[in-house]
Amino acid sequence: MAEAEITFTLPVTRRAIADFAVAVGEDNPIFFDVDEARRQGFPDVVAPPTFSVRQIFEVPREEREERLGASLDYGRVLHGEQEFIYSRLPVAGETLTGTMRISKDFTKEGKRGGSMRFVTYESMFTDADGAEVLRALYTLIETSKDPGS
Amino acid sequence: MTAPTNRTLTSVVPGMDLDEVVYGPLTRDDFVRYAEASGDDNPIHQDEEYARNNGAPTVFALGMLNAGYLAHAVSDWFGGPHRLRRYKVRFTTRVWAGDELACTGRVVAVESGVVKVGLEARRRGSGPDGLGLDEEEVAIVGEADVVLPE
After folding, report:
1. Distance separating alpha carbons of residues A34 and A32, to the nearest angstrom
2. How far is A127 from chain B (nearest CA, A)?
3. A60-114 pLDDT per residue, tens
């Protein structure tokens, strides 16, 4: 029986922020230099805008599939869309609480006979005070077995 | 090497184009580095044989790596990552090792102090041998909402 949502934690560390920032070619000191981040008014270095994708470390794909029960066939799945809605960026030293659920699941007939199923996993991240930090919407597209070529 | 440009709300008008930023050429090492930093260890982005056995001619960039570069460009155009209020991307084609990723943006509207930006990331390169890809293709269509100081 599938669960309605998965609750998990997302630690935000200086090391994880630096590694992630380097991986997307960043050199803005706001990600690397605590003094500079503080000078700009932040309590510590800030996480890059797409940093919360690291939630996959906390809830791997297999666990997500098993617990939320979308039954996707990953041989036919593409990452279609991604959206982030920010109240603020996470900062190093905090641990966010994430709550993930399936917010959309629908099938569209394709132009060439096949169909496409869109499944959106929506994760809401809150801070230690319970305030919303950001939301992440991860949309997968499952193509039909017979794409109708 | 790019640095954030500080902008004020009054300096931004609809129709304004942001300067193109080009990242890359992307390498397989970039794919591995991003996989490790992001936690997405799908072997289709790292393992040549796995990719071939799963319908891809060779390994290709993680979509969120490309989206990470595009977010980097948006951050630099508008004074830093903390200016973002919303960032949305739709993936339209794969990006290959050897490709450059050219990021462009245009201010679409300014509504109640929020700057609405249309985004595009294009792959630029010859692509894997034998695929006959166009030299340039749109890999991401995106949009961002940005807030700026007065």
Report:
1. 6
2. 17
3. 999 999 999 999 988 889 999 999 999 999 999 999 999 999 999 999 987 777 8
